[in-house]
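Consider the record:
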Amino acid sequence: MFLRNEWYVAGFGHEFGERPLQRWLLGEPLVLYRGASGGVVILEDRCPHRGAPISAGEVCGDAIACGYHGFTFDPSGACIHIPGTSTIPREARVRAYPAIERWGWVFVWMGEAAQADQARLPDYHWLVEPGWEGRSEYLSVKANYGLVRDNLLDLTHARYVHRKTLGTAAVTDHPISTEARGRGVRVTRVMTDIEPSPFFKRMGGFTGQVNHHQQIDFAPPCHVVINTRVSSVTGSHENRSAQFHVLNALTPENARSTHYFWGLVRNFALGDEAVTQMQQRLNRETFFEDLAILEQQQVLLDCKPAGWRPVATRNDGGCVQAERLMSRLIEAEIQARNEQ
């Protein structure tokens, strides 16, 4: 089950153009395009005439014509033209999804359009805020979005999965604290006087011992922001500091596949394209290390024996609280829908 009345990332703004794009979200086929007036449009990608993909057609001004029989739909989903007839059946319409373009990303409300609440939009403002620099990328993960979320909320795995990139042995020696924050969860780990990871040695130029602060914030349904601050230990021969925000939007394609939209921004070496390229390459390598584990994990969980349950430890605090929060929200949404 998915939480419907929330904002999900549907794509990057540059993906919306005159050429329609089909993308499946929450098990539903959507067509994404940008109309002549410049606005982004997201419609159900299933023509009511014969069920063909509207995305196989073409954009006509702000409307889109199905590539099978030419049924044409405006941004509200209403059919405005049927070749060969002036009569348009009332049922000839498709669902239109509220969409907001912000920070170079396009968000879609997958639930009831009347309940779309802009105040619930997740915050990724660092992508455009002065004093921060970085880029966004996309990764397809053949695993449930909850597995990707938990991978981000419990960074203990970095010692083993990311030995060559983010890994540091200190991560297992420093406990986490977990805090429920309204409609969200925060996980914090503070590591003091440790050896910097390979990533920070290369990106921040650290050679001596550092203090490493991790703050991970989860917001329903699938948004995770990791704030990492690294600074030289007071009194050391270095006086360096670096801060990163890892921005993660985990939009379910279906129950076993995830559209992973991510961004990485830093607050130093601004304007240095070589640093930006290295930053993206190193983080991409890190995510590929995660992907190798997550996709195998999904295969094994798909065939788990009856009654099998995961064993939780203290480091799973953020994962457990996030899962409980999502379960409560989904249950409440289903109950509200049944009462209508």
The chain has five helices and 17 strands. Helices lie at 145-153, 158-161, 198-204, 273-302, 317-339. The mean pLDDT is 93. The two ends are 19 Å apart (CA to CA).
